[in-house]
Amino acid sequence: MHLHRSETDILIIGSGGAGLMAALHAAQSCPTLDITVAVKGLLGKCGCTRMVQGGYNVALSPGDSVERHFMDTINGGKWIPNQDLAWTLCETAVTRVRELENELGCFFDRNPDGSLHHKAFAGQTFDRTVHKGDLTGIEIISRLMEQALTLGLKALEEHRVLGLIPAADGSGISGALMVDVRTGDFRFVKAKAVLLATGGGPTMYRYHTPSGDKTMDGLAMALRLGLDLRDMEMVQFHPTGLLAGPDTRMTGTVLEEGLRGAGGHLLNGEGERFMENYDPKAERATRDVVSRSIFSEMRAGRTTPNGGVHVSMSHLGPEHVRKTFKGMVERCRDCGFDLAGGLVEVVPTAHYFMGGVVVDTDCRTAIPGLFVAGEDAGGVHGANRLGGNGVANSTVYGGIAGERMAALCETMPFAADPDETVIEAELARAREPFGRSGANVGDLRDRLMDNMWDDVGVMRDADRLARGVASLDALGEELMATGAGPEKRAFNLTWHDWLNLRSLVEISQVIARAAQIREDSRGAHYREDFPETGDLETSTFTVVREVDGKLEARHDPVVFSIVSPGESLIEAA
Amino acid sequence: MAGDDKDATLSVGVWRGDADGGEYVEYSVPHRASQTVLDVVTWIQRNIAPDLAYRFACRVGMCGSCAMTVNGRPRWTCRTHVDKVARNGRLTIAPLDNLPVVRDLAADMAPFFEKWKRANGAFQGGETRDDPIAEVRPDEPERKEADAAIECINCGICYAACDSVRWNPDYLGPAALNRVWALHNDRRDVARDDRLAAIGGEGGCHLCHSQAGCTAHCPQGLDPSGGIAGLKRALFRAALKGTV
Questions:
Q1: Residues in domain Fumarate reductase/succinate dehydrogenase flavoprotein-like C-terminal (chain A) (predicted)?
Q2: N or C, which end of chain A is more exposed by having fewer CB within 10 Å?
């Protein structure tokens, strides 16, 4: 098996907000560094930073403060976040937004007097979300991408990383094994420092919003290295994903929160508004409450033709809706639905993954030289993420990782040699499905998404979770008996579908395992058999890791390093 | 609607091949009520042709990865409903024009981004992260021009639709010039004169013949053609003033 080998100073895996910001900051810290970015799709075009609609939370307005942003983040995260990570996020967001505007060229929306506009976003006590219309992500990633193009970095586009390779001498990371999607050639890139920034993305649910390329590859690789993964039960569901039926990639894509905020109604299959039966705030209740309410209607069988509920906006006046929600109305129209004047079917949809690799505020992991940033890292958001803290997280920590990696490189004369047995094992692992035929990989993916939706989804209990774990085990075995046909590796999407599915099944097992041991309801995690939130003072976070091929789950106590439950950093008014 | 008929099928010609050439291959695909062109391509890969190469990411018209030529026109396939484009149940799907082919429906976007870079499409600010954010009123005429050009998703559709690119592969093309127009109207940028000089030279905006294929095809409703006209006027004024 021929293996191309190359060497670089810094290897960045992923080109979303975290990956590109890391590249820019590493180059600024030390312009002579050799920087390589490997990405599954095209530079800046895959991943979810692009898809940010809402905006970027930052305490820049007069009257707002980092303390207030921090308290909102901790309260939103139900006291589970790592407080040092949350603090660094809120504090650094201030300089990061100025960097995005003044140095990188993002042109965010302004107030009539020319000052930066901050919009209101759910769960926050101050209007602090900076945005560019409702396409903030396009503005951020396009500006990052064009700056990255000027750096002269090595871009390995359409290169899928297969495994992280430790050093032969046990000193830390050595690099990553990857495959060139277009040619099918294998490549090992040796590096002094490696950043894992592939983005999480819970695409193992029947309904999901993230970009289609995201399949938990990063977390699956981290799991294989034996790293601790935290908060893995914490999957954020958005209440209104578009429901367009089976066999269409439109299904699951998000319809924005503002529809409910503006007075939109949710109607069940019998045409009745049902939200008031669950919460006095009705459609304006929080994301998790609305998601569970819709899920309950679905379980009771009061559904629309495709099995969801309807969102209805026409009572607000179709012209008004068309004007206020231009982007959403146009997207629905392109998909064949009339959002302004008719009914559109919606379902809760898996949106963001709070869980991830345990890191410190320098993005370091337990393996020297391996850094993690963005949605692959855990602990910033705890049990729930505030809208607007996602892109803040990726760009803040991507930048920090870039600086720390540059500093590390200056202390290292050369990269460590790889453990060749791990390279061999990862190559064999990637080639496993070749030569076998068997079930249709797409059908297996559908079954995974159904299992996770039914048993490890919006509402959980011990029996369902046990059933979920059993079906995941069975599915894993079936996948291993299924193949990708003869060994043709060049642009073989069906082989990649197989590899994607393997990552998804492995991380689904971790999600189910973490959900089993958290016996209280917190934020995004709801247990019907433990509907109350436990004592906040004794809060723990879950940690799962793989030991000798088996998952081990445990609780670690939350350290209230900055503020304890019952306290606040904000003076009472 | 045809999609409601369970037995309805689409006859789909898909271009299969690589840089050395290729041909259309015929497939029959079930027609559904809710179905985009990307869904048709996906169905073929999942059920008939597991080795079909194509590209997509976000599914909602934000990443610009899935653009292809559909019945002869460049389009974003994730947001093109089959019922909007199928003629008598017939679709042809090919990679984007004016770019090299990697394989099947995947075009090589490298020249497109190379030109973005060559046009100096990256912002150059005079302030740093330690400075306050510039006050720019939303009703300033320049800010309005910049806003109108800003939401490009770099999908390459305008580039594929451009006759001038077809005739002169050296031409920067509408997307890169649209970016230059947005920056030209961004008074925070300090390199506007240099940039104008750069696009006034070889491969620059004078190669545009105002056919406006870009504006007609832009899925985001942007007007690169208008922006290029604005750049030509700005170049003319700068030449009179002697700043380029």
A1: 445-565
A2: C
What's chain A's average pLDDT? Answer: 96
**Domain chopping of chain B, boundaries:** 2-107, 110-241
**Are the beta carbons of A105 and B135 separated by less than 8 Å?**
no
Which of A321, A348, A375 represents a domain boundary (last residue)? A348
Residue A573, pLDDT > 60, answer no
* A113–chain B Cβ distance below 8 A for any pair: yes
| HEC string for A192-237 | EEEEECCCCCCCCCCCECCCCCCCCHHHHHHHHCCCCEECCCCEEE
Confirm whether A287 is a catalytic residue.
yes
Residue from A25, A110, A349 to probe the interface with B (highest B Cβ count within 10 Å) = A110
Amino acid at B188: R
Q: Is the pLDDT of residue B233 over 80?
A: yes
What letter does residue B156 receive in the DSSP assignment?
S
Show residues of chain B in contact with A142, CB under 8 Å.
152-154
Substitution target in B29, B58, B112, B135 with the highest count of A β-carbons within 10 Å is B58
Among candidate residues B68, B96, B97, the one with its CA nearest the CA of residue B80? B68
Place of tokens 């050369």: A414
> A440 and A336, same structural domain?
no
pLDDT in tens, A100-141: 999 999 999 999 999 999 998 888 999 999 999 889 999 999
pLDDT score recorded for residue B82: 97
Which residues have CB under 8 Å from A415's CB, separation 6+? Answer: A7, A9, A174, A175, A190, A191, A192
Please report, in angstroms and rounded to a whole number, the separation of the first and last CA atoms in chain B: 58
pLDDT at B5: 58
Q: Is A334 at the interface with chain B, CB within 8 A?
A: yes
Q: What is the pTM of this model?
A: 0.97
Q: What is the least distance, in Å, from the CA of A26 to any CA of chain B?
A: 16
Is the Cβ pair A245, B34 closer than 8 Å?
yes
Domain boundary among A286, A316, A348: A348
Residue of chain B with shortest Cα separation from A156: B110
Q: What CATH number did the domain enclosing A307 receive?
A: 3.90.700.10
Query: Average model confidence (pLDDT) for chain B?
Result: 95
Residue of A nearest to B38 (CA): A249
Cβ <8 Å between A105 and B186:
yes
Mean pLDDT on A187-213: 97
The pLDDT value recorded for residue B6 is: 61
Distance CA B223, CA B217 (A): 10
The domain that contains A493 carries what CATH number? 1.20.58.100
Q: Which residues of A340-376 are buried (b: 16+ CB within 10 A; e: fewer)?
A: beebbbbbbbbbbbbbbbbbbbebbbebbbbbbbbbb
Q: Which fold has domain B110-241?
A: Fumarate Reductase Iron-sulfur Protein; Chain B, domain 2 (1.10.1060)
CB-nearest to B60 from A132, A253, A492 is A253
Q: Which of B10, B105, B129, B144 to mutate to test the interface with A (most CBs of A within 10 A)?
A: B129
The shortest C-alpha distance from A484 to chain B (Å) reads: 9
Asked whether the predicted pLDDT for residue A352 surpasses 80, the reply is: yes
Q: What is the tens place of the pLDDT at every residue in A4-25?
A: 999 999 999 999 999 999 999 9
Asked if pLDDT for residue A263 goes beyond 50, the answer is: yes
Q: What is the DSSP string of B122-144?
A: S--BSS-TTSPPPP--TTSHHHH
Classify residue A257: in a domain, yes or no: yes
Question: Quick check: is A232 in a domain?
Answer: no
Say yes or no: A437 and A541 in one domain: yes
Q: Write down the residue that tokens 């005429």 correspond to.
A: B141
A41, A102, A150: residue with CB nearest B122: A150
Do A335 and A446 belong to one domain?
no
Structural domain that includes position A315? 238-348
The closest CB to that of A102, out of B32, B51, B133, belongs to B133
Q: Cβ contacts (< 8 Å) between A248 and chain B: which residues?
A: 32, 34-36, 39
> Is B3's pLDDT higher than 60?
no
- Provide the number of structural domains found in chain A: 2
Question: Does A288 have pLDDT greater than 50?
Answer: yes
Residue A451 within a domain: yes
